[in-house]
Amino acid sequence: MTGLILEGGAMRGMYTAGVCDVLMEHNISFDGCIGVSAGATFGCNVKSKQIGRTVRYNTKYSRDPRYASFRSLLFTGDYFGAKFCYDDIPNTFDPFDYKTYKENPMPFYIVCTDADTGNAVYHRADDCGERDLLYMRASASMPLFSRIVEVDGLHLSDGGTADSIPISWFRAQGYTKNLVVLTRPDGYRKKPMSAAGAIRFALHKYPALADALSTRHIRYNETLDLLAKLEKAGDTMVLRPSRDLHLGRIEKDPAKLREMYDLGREDASGKLEEIKKFLGM
Length: 281
Fold this sequence. Notes:
Blueprint: E1 2-6, H1 14-25, E2 32-36, H2 38-47, H3 53-61, H4 70-76, H5 82-93, H6 98-103, E3 108-114, E4 120-124, H7 130-139, E5 149-151, E6 154-157, H8 159-163, H9 167-172, E7 177-181, H10 196-202, H11 207-214, H12 216-233, E8 236-239, H13 254-270, H14 272-279
Parallel strand pairs: 1-2, 1-7, 2-3, 7-8
Antiparallel strand pairs: 3-4, 3-6, 5-6
Helix pairs in contact: 1-2, 1-13, 3-13
């Protein structure tokens, strides 16, 4: 089966949005899709088949304090406003197509981190209803910038902490031909977490989560090594930014977000025939 794997990276996910829009415009589909953090919150638009939605609402609301702000973090505990991002936007300001999402047979999975164990949690989101949105919000809950999300008796946090690029898990589910979209350029290697002591103090209620954060760079870099091997074997294709735009995770400038999106479109368009050939189209 073919799979689409979408890394997170907060606003660097605009690159993923550009890639996904090109794929949809050319009717390139997959047997399954899995997203982590922004890869989940932006990638769900692949299943709902809403070309352009991600770049539209992000560039429109990126500077809106209800969407993302330190004011929101101070008063709600979430830098990205939970109500505005997961209720107001999809249900009022830029409606999400729940009907198409639900009717699309492609399974869509969300990766979170269990704050009590530090292990990855993989959730299949079938309707993008209230429960699924809690998992999605949890997946994108950056440690220290977001509250822990409680759902199904679990305490969940950012999926990237436990499994930033879920290639191994997805392959174990039977998706052995995968297109992987990363949000860092070639040559990037994750470094050890800085300010470890302060982070451990802030997460004193969740020591396993702090442990997972402290070892994240090891798992991430090992996964990059695995991807390189799988690429050589011919059953994995990786798309990553062809140049470094130095976009931060909480970038708010609409022009810079659009530039990252356009780079995703550019890279995907340039490799369109290669992608089709890889997927046997």
